[in-house]
Write a structure and sequence with these properties.
Length: 146
């Protein structure tokens, strides 16, 4: 039985390079190869990993299949924050995530925070002395394409 039976091509980002190199020794653990195995019939062209990426049994475009516990929404984590810290914390997060618009895409769930991003944000709150309610509003397990 396929352990990735829930993986479908509609999960793959539109510009994600897929792989069709069946002889690759890393294929079984690579999300690019997994994406190539579930290609939709209506896809005729797109970004791909070329055979030249594979040298001496190693692929320079290998990406480990990983399911992550992604998060979005900042209301909960900001719930107990003092007014004097709020703007500074929010600005630090905006800078870390890439700006005002990007911050709100993570807040509204258009983009999802990786575990590494979540860890950075939680450590920021800890550095301000906050230790309670360090949770995001929503969580979802997803395949990692980052």
């Amino acid at each position: 039985m396929n352990k990735y039976q829930d993986f479908t091509y509609d999960l793959v980002p539109p510009t994600w390079p897929v792989c069709f190199i069946k002889s690759c020794p890393m294929a079984e653990d690579c999300i690019r190869h997994l994406a190539g195995t579930v290609l939709s019939d209506d896809v005729a062209f797109g970004a791909a990993v070329y055979p030249t990426a594979l040298k001496n049994g190693k692929c320079c475009k290998f990406k480990q299949i990983r399911v992550i516990h992604a998060a979005w929404g900042f209301d909960t984590i900001f719930n107990q924050v003092k007014r004097k810290d709020s703007a500074s914390l929010r600005n630090s997060i905006k800078e870390y995530l890439g700006g005002h618009g990007t911050y709100y895409r993570y807040h509204n769930g258009k983009l999802l925070l990786t575990p590494e991003q979540q860890e950075w944000i939680v450590s920021l709150f800890l550095s301000y002395g906050y230790t309670e309610n360090l949770k995001f509003d929503n969580y979802k397990d997803i395949y990692d394409f980052s």
